[in-house]
Design a protein that fits this description.
The chain is mainly β and about 150 residues long. The chain has a 7-stranded parallel beta sheet, with no helix packed on it. It has a two-stranded parallel ribbon with strand order 3-5. α1 links the parallel β8 and β9. The radius of gyration is 15 Å and the shape is globular.
Length: about 150
């Protein structure tokens, strides 16, 4: 039986797959603290990342085909501090309410993004970049709650 060599790297903390032609996330070790998938030109969907409980940074920016995010993706990512979906085709984000340590949420030029999920629980957010999100309807309470770069 073939095992994926990356999945066997149990001590791996940082995995950078940026600018590769992966179309789906390969099996990866669950101890990662950083996952960089930026510029993956063939990545269409971000599957569930619930097993990455120690993840602090997730960057999927500049993935021009990325349009789908598993609705459970952020459920157990309580340590996540940095989330970048800039320049993707994402239309909706799953709930972010469990991301209590999130400091930066970058959604720059997500021209298909229509709505933001409730973010009352994301109390440590320092930067929310919605610039270039031309289809987005921004709720007044979000504007009042966060420093926004628009």
């Amino acid at each position: 039986m073939f095992k994926d060599p990356i999945a066997e790297l149990n001590q791996l903390k940082v995995l950078n797959l940026s600018k590769t032609k992966i179309s789906k996330l390969p099996p990866i070790p669950c101890n990662l603290s950083e996952l960089n998938l930026s510029g993956c030109s063939e990545l269409v969907e971000l599957p569930s990342t619930t097993f990455l409980k120690n993840l602090e940074l997730l960057d999927v920016s500049n993935t021009p085909k990325l349009a789908k995010i598993n609705h459970e993706s952020f459920q157990h990512l309580t340590y996540l501090r940095y989330l970048n979906f800039s320049n993707t085709k994402v239309e909706n984000l799953p709930t972010l309410s469990n991301l209590r340590n999130l400091r930066q949420l970058l959604l720059r030029n997500c021209t298909f993004l229509r709505n933001l999920p409730a973010m009352e629980e994301v109390t440590r957010l320092e930067e929310l970049d919605l610039s270039g999100c031309s289809a987005l309807k921004v709720n007044d309470s979000i504007i009042d709650s966060f420093r926004i770069n628009m």
